[in-house]
Design brief:
The protein is of the alpha+beta class. The protein has 2 domains: 1-32; 39-250, Jelly Rolls (Sandwich), CATH 2.60.120. It contains 3 helices and 13 strands; from the N terminus they run H-H-E-E-E-E-E-E-E-E-E-E-E-H-E-E.
C-alpha cells in the first residue's frame, strides 16, 4: 500500500469512528430524554412525577423538613451514598400525603446494599423513624447478603419487609442494574410488583394483617400501619441506592 492509499484508509477509519461516536451519543441522549418524563398518554391518565430529575424538590428529611440531607439529584438519579458527608444521612419523605394510588419507580442498589420504599408514613417527631408507622417495600442486593438474611423471603427484594414471604419467587437484577417496581394501594389493600412479578398482596387491618404484624418486629410500634394515608418514604440505610422515573397516579 502506497502512502496515498494509507492516508485514504486512515481518513476513512477516522470518519468511521466519528460517525460511530455521534450515533452512540445521539441514541444515548435520546434515551436520557425519556427518563424522568411523562408521555402524553401518561399525563392524560393522571400520572405525576415525584422526582423531576434535577432537584430534590418535593422531598424532605423525615420529621426534620429544614435539615440538609445527603440525598442528591445526579445525572437524572435521586441518589444517596454512605460515603457522602455533605449532608445528614436519613430517610426522606414526600412533601405530600397519599392514600389511594399507583406508584411506579426504577431503582438500583449498590453491592451489599439495603434500602426500601415506605408507604403511609406519619411524618411526626413523636415517631423514631419512617418504619415506626409505614410498611416497607424492600430493596436489596439479594445475591450478596449474608446467609440467612432473606428470612424465607420476608426480607428479599420486592417483599413486604419482615411481614410476609414473597407471593411469587423473583430475583432482582444484579447490583448496579436498574429494576422497575410498582406499588398499588386502594382502601388499604396493597399490592407490590418487582420487574412485572407480583410479590405481595395484603389488606391492611384484616385479621391476617394483624397476625402478620403481631409476629414481626413491627409489633413494638403501636401505630405501625394504623393509617392507610401518609407520606411515601425512601430509605437511606446501607451502601447506597438510586431512583429514577418515580411517578404516581391517584386512584379515585
Amino acid at each position: 500500500m502506497n502512502n496515498k492509499n494509507r492516508l485514504r484508509a486512515a481518513v476513512l477509519i477516522s470518519l468511521a469512528f466519528v460517525f460511530l461516536f455521534l450515533t452512540v451519543s445521539y441514541f444515548y441522549k435520546k434515551k436520557l430524554g425519556t427518563i424522568n418524563t411523562l408521555s402524553s398518554n401518561e399525563k392524560a391518565a393522571g400520572w405525576v412525577l415525584l422526582f423531576d430529575g434535577k432537584t430534590t424538590n418535593g422531598w424532605h428529611m423525615f420529621s426534620k423538613p429544614a435539615m440538609k440531607h445527603a440525598w442528591k439529584a445526579v445525572n437524572g438519579e435521586l441518589t444517596t451514598a454512605s460515603s457522602d458527608t455533605t449532608g445528614t444521612h436519613g430517610d426522606i419523605v414526600t412533601d405530600e400525603v397519599f392514600e389511594n394510588y399507583e406508584l411506579v419507580f426504577d431503582w438500583k442498589i449498590a453491592r451489599e446494599g439495603n434500602s426500601g420504599v415506605f408507604i403511609n408514613v406519619q411524618d411526626d417527631t413523636s415517631y423514631i423513624a419512617t418504619w415506626a408507622t409505614g410498611p416497607e417495600y424492600q430493596l436489596l442486593d439479594n445475591a450478596n447478603m449474608q446467609v440467612g438474611y432473606l428470612d424465607g423471603g420476608k426480607k428479599g427484594a420486592g417483599a413486604l419487609y419482615g411481614l410476609a414471604p414473597l407471593k411469587n419467587p423473583v430475583e432482582p437484577k444484579p447490583a448496579g442494574e436498574w429494576n422497575t417496581s410498582r406499588i398499588m394501594q386502594v382502601n388499604g389493600k396493597i399490592n407490590f410488583w418487582l420487574n412485572g412479578i407480583m410479590t405481595a398482596e395484603e389488606q391492611i387491618g384484616s385479621e391476617r394483617w394483624k397476625g402478620l404484624v403481631a409476629n414481626s418486629k413491627a409489633a413494638i410500634f403501636p401505630d405501625f400501619s394504623k393509617s392507610t394515608k401518609g407520606h411515601i418514604g425512601l430509605q437511606d440505610w446501607a451502601k447506597g441506592v438510586s431512583f429514577r422515573n418515580i411517578k404516581i397516579r391517584i386512584i379515585q
